[in-house]
Amino acid sequence: MGYQQHYATLFGALEAEYGALDGETLTAIIGFSAGGPVSLCERRAARLFVTCELSLYEEQKTSTDGLHFELFCKDDFDEEQAHALFTALGALSMEARLGDKHTVDASQIVKARTDVVRLTLFSRVMVEGAEYGLYRVRPAQQEATAYLAGGL
To answer: What are phi and psi of 121, to 5 degrees?
Structure first.
């Protein structure tokens, strides 16, 4: 299966929920594997950013849910914040096992402009016999506020 089909399958639930991603990919001259920022796809109309390379790295640790994965955000971060956060989280995913409901201290990532983020499992799929997933990344304090507001 090729790269495009891999991501069409992996992003299926995301696009069903929020609409098709825009055609172009946000990439840097120096790629993630050489120390640059992670590549992102976006849906401008939905203010959504999603990584589009992490799950294909053999070096990525499987999540605590047993998945190779990508990260996305919706409405919570602008492009600069998403790039900074997802690049740092992408690098972390090569060293540590992240997973559903994990919180990560982002206070040292200046461009992130948030202190703590929470990962929430959004979807999981099988691609050629392996499990892959998408985790939504949100400011942890917003997650708590949304939970409290919903519980009142």
So the answer is: -65, 120
Q: Token pair of 74, please?
A: 């919706």
Taking the model in full, what pTM does it have? Answer: 0.89
> How far apart (Å, rounded) are the C-alpha atoms in residues 139 and 144?
9
Gap between the Cα atoms of 24 and 40, Å rounded: 9
130-139 vs 68-74, strand pairing mode:
parallel
Instruction: Map residue 16 onto helix, strand or coil.
Output: helix
Name residues whose C-beta falls within 8 Å of residue 4's C-beta, 6 or more positions apart in sequence.
none
Tens-digit pLDDT profile for residues 62-86 = 999 999 999 999 999 999 999 999 9
Query: Could you tell me which residues are beta bridge partners of residue 109?
Result: none
Residue ranges per structural domain of the chain: 3-151
Q: How far is it, in rounded angstroms, from Cα 14 to Cα 22?
A: 13
